[in-house]
Specification:
The protein is an all-alpha fold and 143 residues long. 77% of the residues lie in helices and 0% in strands. It has a domain of 77 residues. The chain has 5 helices and no strands. Helix 1 runs parallel beside helix 4 and helix 3 packs antiparallel against helix 4.
């Protein structure tokens, strides 16, 4: 019974980490179209009347961050796939699930830190008025 609880807990943690990562993982073009979809931060930037220089700085920041973020995304995918390919009747399933959940949590934390750093770098490119306007757009989106 305890083993089943451990497996269930590991599966739930893995699923939660995967959903968290999928919801926030950037997978966008380098221009101001959005991290993963329209309505993302980069899409909001297009509403701030950025100068050509600011647009280029944002493109450069995103392009520089892309390899690290893509690597993390690929690692997260491989981790999920490893768990998915392990059958529940495998004698090592509980340990595989636990390892996958721990790995996914670590990767998710790294992804969050990278995204926060990317956001901070982009924020520095904006003027104080644009920073205020972006904050208002983000607050509006959360409603």
């Amino acid at each position: 019974m305890k083993s089943f609880r451990n497996v269930l807990t590991a599966m739930l943690l893995t699923a939660g980490a995967a959903l968290t990562a999928a919801a926030g993982a950037p997978d966008a073009p380098s221009g101001p179209q959005g991290w993963r979809h329209h309505g993302g931060v980069l899409h909001m930037l297009s509403r701030l009347n950025l100068s050509d220089a600011q647009k280029q700085q944002v493109r450069d920041i995103v392009a520089a961050a892309r390899p690290q973020l893509e690597s993390l995304r690929e690692q997260m995918h491989a981790n999920r796939l490893q768990l998915k390919q392990t059958q529940p009747n495998d004698p090592n399933y509980a340990s595989v699930a636990l390892q996958a959940s721990q790995t996914q949590g670590s990767l998710s934390a790294q992804m969050t830190a990278q995204q926060a750093e990317l956001r901070a770098q982009v924020f520095k490119v904006l003027t104080p008025a644009q920073q205020t306007q972006l904050a208002a757009l983000e607050a509006e989106k959360r409603r």
